[in-house]
Specification:
Layout: E1 4-9, H1 16-32, E2 37-42, E3 46-51, E4 62-65, E5 70-74, H2 81-93, E6 97-102, H3 108-124
Antiparallel strand pairs: 1-5, 1-6, 2-3, 3-4
Helix pairs in contact: 1-2, 1-3, 2-3
């Protein structure tokens, strides 16, 4: 079955600071959690990523498109789910998205830990 995350985009642009935190989340996930991420877009208007297709770690693209409203991503329990979850937590806390729902609470602690590590890098800068 897999994990599915649902949310509503708020149409607020992703500011540079938040975009930098997203980059930190991805970098930390690669280094500390050995999660291979395929970044397809990482801009103030469009974030699109997936697990590494070459290693069979991909499923559905995770897309934050500020031109659309309701969205969802099914990760099929692939490792990139904690990256998706951490980014959603960040974007919800900065009012870029709202109404985040999920069908499973697995990996919540890892996603929180990943987000906190990324946020601590900002505080050090």
């Amino acid at each position: 079955m897999g994990y599915t995350r649902y949310w509503e985009n708020s149409k607020n642009l992703i500011d540079d600071k938040t975009l930098e935190t997203i980059k930190n989340i991805i970098d930390i996930a690669k280094k500390d959690y050995d999660i291979d991420i395929d970044i397809k877009s990482l801009t103030n208007e469009l974030v699109m990523l997936n697990g590494d297709e070459n290693k069979g770690l991909d499923h559905e693209d995770f897309v934050i498109d500020l031109k659309s409203g309701f969205n969802f991503c099914k990760t099929n329990e692939k490792p990139y789910d904690i990256v998706v979850n951490a980014i959603l937590k960040l974007l919800e806390s900065t009012n870029k998205i709202r109404d985040v729902e999920k069908d499973d609470d697995n990996e919540e602690e890892k996603a929180e830990e990943l987000l906190n590590k990324a946020l601590s890098i900002e505080k050090e800068s």
